[in-house]
Specification:
- The complex is a heterodimer of chains A (114) and B (143).
- Chain A has two helices and seven strands; from the N terminus they run H-E-E-E-E-E-H-E-E.
- Chain A is α+β, with helices and mostly antiparallel strands.
- Chain A has a five-stranded mixed sheet with strand order 1-2-5-7-6, with helices on one face.
- The radius of gyration of chain A is 15 Å and the shape is elongated.
- Chain B has a domain of 94 residues.
- In chain B, strand 2 and strand 3 form a beta hairpin.
- The longest helix of chain B has 27 residues.
- Chain B is elongated, with a radius of gyration of 22 Å.
- The chains are: A alpha+beta (114), B mainly alpha (143).
Chain lengths: 114, 143
């Protein structure tokens, strides 16, 4: 299991198109891009890491009101035990008409599961 | 009723008293020690993402990287000391370094995010705390 796999599964329920890294093709009026950030060994014993914390950033792009989608995503993340480490409105892109909202999440995974 | 008086050693009390007097002198040194750990990681992350995977040939001048730095410790309105890692302004082309850094960090529609600040923050949290603890120990030893 990885954070990318799980985020894709969790957010698929919201019905918003999702891609990793960059959105290929012509973007719809609402979409999400997931950017993997870093994996750290925060919890270990006997010098042997058994778990890792994976972090990723979700960029939500919406033409029009983003509030409903944002709340839906946040709720889905919390229900599925993700830790939200940051949420912020980045801004309105005048050239594209998109509102940009970023949500950073982290989750702990067993190394053996990967 | 039984009563117990515990007297702290004179030397310890003297050190605590000196520490209280020198707080404003010691805190900036400790914060700067922490900042010195985080700054190289931010810089190396930034260098790794600039010009990487661009649609067109990169026209990077290196100005953003060279503008990155660590501020000296300053007190905020609540009296707390802070150091900041950020970008000096202005740029030669009159654009804002902070704006460019923000676009690199968060991306745009059609431009992928290349986070460099957040990963640096996560990766250096422990070493930063350790460096600040070591700096505090050193300062306490000098009292």
């Amino acid at each position: 299991m990885s954070i990318l796999f799980e985020l894709n599964a969790v957010l698929a329920v919201a019905g918003i198109p999702i891609e990793t890294g960059v959105f290929s093709g012509v973007p719809p009026d609402e979409y999400i891009v997931i950017t993997p950030m870093n994996d750290t060994f925060e919890v270990y014993a006997d010098n042997q890491p058994l778990h890792e914390i994976q972090e990723a950033r979700m960029s939500l792009f919406v033409k029009g009101s983003y509030t409903t989608s944002k709340n839906q995503i946040v709720k889905a993340l919390l229900i599925n035990d993700f830790t939200i480490t940051d949420r912020r409105y980045i801004g309105h892109e005048v050239d594209t008409g998109f509102h940009h909202y970023a949500i950073d999440v982290s989750k702990e995974y067993d190394l053996e599961e990967n | 009723m039984a009563k117990v008086d515990i007297k702290m050693p004179e030397e310890f009390l003297l050190k605590v008293s000196k520490l209280a007097e020198k707080t404003d002198e010691i805190i900036p040194k400790i914060l700067e020690a922490g900042g010195e750990v985080v700054l190289p990681k931010v810089k190396s992350n930034l260098q790794a993402v600039i010009g990487n995977g661009t649609k067109y040939k990169s026209r990077s001048t290196g100005e953003l990287t060279s503008a990155l730095g660590l501020s000296s410790a300053k007190q905020d309105k609540n009296g707390n000391f802070n150091v900041k890692i950020g970008f000096a302004e202005p740029r030669r082309d009159a654009k804002s370094n902070a704006k460019i850094a923000n676009i690199i960090e968060y991306g745009k529609s059609g431009q992928p995010a290349k986070p460099f600040l957040k990963p640096a923050k996560s990766a250096t949290r422990k070493p930063c705390v350790a460096a600040m603890a070591a700096a505090l120990e050193k300062e306490l030893g000098n009292l």
